[in-house]
Amino acid sequence: MFKPVMLAALLAGVAHCRFMEPSSDPYALPEGMLIGAGVSALQTEGAWNLSGKAESAADYVLHLGKLSSLGFGDPHDHDVAADSYHRYKEDIAMAVKLKLTLYRFSISWSRVLPDSDPSNPNMEGVQYYHDLIDEILRNNLTPMATLHHFDHPRILEDQFKGFQGEEMVAKFKEYARFAFNQYAGKVKLWVTVNEPNMYCIYFPNLYNISGLYTDNDMQRYDCVRHTILAHAEAYHVFHEDNHEGRVGFTALLTPARPNSTRSEDVYTAAAYNELQAGLALNPVVHGDWPQDVKDLAGSKVPEFSEAEKQRIKGTADFLGFNVYYTLTVAYKTPDNATDGGSIRGGMHC
């Protein structure tokens, strides 16, 4: 029975295949495919304190100069960075030369709303992104905007530790509505929070190393929960306000494969993938944490209420995966263990 069914499926698949005609342009892309480059305000803009921009939480912790153990050299490198605030036209021209079709950038929350008050915007910052978007469109590229790439106004970190505080959900909703009202007429592809699963581990750790947080201050699972709730609110705002376009959710993926075919290693790889990627992606697709995350992390993981589950479920018009490398993982035993981390079931959690 299996072989005829498989053969029928293959024949059906071949029947529906669309074979592309050879193109005279060796760089031609299939119709509808976008290939592009991405930048972020923190990493490329510079101009960290110019034209009305407020200090961001990232500016503050980097300027303290206490992160050399993590490979940060000059604490003021990002003050200028690639100077794209002044040289964005050169960046876009380079994208055109590379035959890219999409240009992804992030909006600096602390540049457009320095005190996070939509009634008090920094119009120089607002106009900068209009100019950037107009230049992208003028060069026949598709703009994709990210609302948060690690650089919310420092005032929000001071008030309630940023995304570790539930107050951030309402603040992000206000900011998202402001950004959509400004730019959604030109930008049709949006990402809400870049890599929340990475941000909520890495960024609080920077504050901890810099002496600004204690270990007890770092509520990583609360942070992920709040980024998901904030994302969902932004998603609903976009569609309820009848903007045209799509709002997606982007997570960091470092896919793990088992070190061997031993069941313990297979389990560990699957559990790692759930803790790392499923933690962020499962809620916006299915409305809750993966069961493996609940089992492994236990009471560390804050529950979503039934109303929240309904609110967050299905809140992604597309999913974005940032993949830089993969991992090979093995089940941790006393024989292969190294120091560090709290261990449950052979996993760091």
UniProtKB/TrEMBL annotation:
GO MF entries: beta-glucosidase activity
Keyword Signal: yes
Gene Ontology biological process terms, A to Z: carbohydrate metabolic process
Domain of life per record: Eukaryota
One Pfam short name: Glyco_hydro_1
Cleaved signal peptide residues: 1-17
Keywords: Glycosidase, Hydrolase, Signal
InterPro entries: GH, Glyco_hydro_1
Entry similarity comment: Belongs to the glycosyl hydrolase 1 family.
Record-given protein name: Furostanol glycoside 26-O-beta-glucosidase-like isoform X1
Organism annotation: Thrips palmi
Name of encoding gene: LOC117644959
